[in-house]
Write a structure and sequence with these properties.
This protein is mainly α. The chain folds into 2 domains: 10-137; 140-171. It is 75% helix and 0% strand. The protein contains 5 helices and no strands. α2 crosses α3 and α2 runs antiparallel to α4. The longest helix has 46 residues, at 21-66.
């Protein structure tokens, strides 16, 4: 099974818009279901590819037990020799690569599900803060002119320090 990762953009799906907590809550179950369904398919694929690897390995072991001539003249088909032989088989290696890829896909989807559960926790906390009026606007008017002047002075001082440091390093 090949996942179309364009359909599964976890950065976008796990993002929270604090101005739309209700919408985020409404889409949460659908996102978990979407990723959960993909995870179930990926885990099934990983299990199937693992069984394919075992089957190929068994076929090779049975063939070598029946006719050890591919191992070479005078080589006894001991367990380490047979293992070395089947690990070099092209079909076995392809199946093993498919298994590794399928397991990696399943793990990536597990991480996506974990991110969605973290999103749920973040949503719960944001709703709690919203209920406590954490996001309420300021109660006293701000003196924007004074804040702007202070910010400007701070930026100028930082710029002067940077330029002074540059001059000192170049000498």
């Amino acid at each position: 099974m090949e996942i179309n990762w364009d359909e599964y953009n976890i950065k976008e799906d796990a993002a929270i818009d604090p101005a739309q907590l209700d919408v985020c809550w409404l889409e949460q179950p659908n996102l978990v279901a979407k990723y959960g369904k993909a995870l179930a398919r990926a885990e099934m694929e990983a299990k199937q590819t693992a069984e394919d690897v075992k089957s190929i390995r068994s076929d090779i072991i049975i063939a070598i037990s029946a006719d050890p001539s591919p191992l070479g003249d005078g080589v006894k088909p001991t367990a380490p020799v047979v293992e070395a032989y089947y690990r070099q088989d092209a079909d076995y290696r392809r199946a093993k690569a498919r298994m590794i890829k399928a397991e990696a896909t399943a793990e990536r989807l597990r991480q996506c599900i974990n991110a969605l559960y973290n999103r749920r926790t973040a949503l719960e906390n944001l709703v709690r803060l919203h209920g406590q009026e954490w996001f309420a606007g300021p109660r006293a008017p701000r003196d924007l002119v004074a804040e702007w002047e202070q910010n400007t002075k701070h930026r100028r001082a930082s710029t002067n320090v940077k330029e002074h440091t540059k001059r000192r390093r170049t000498k």
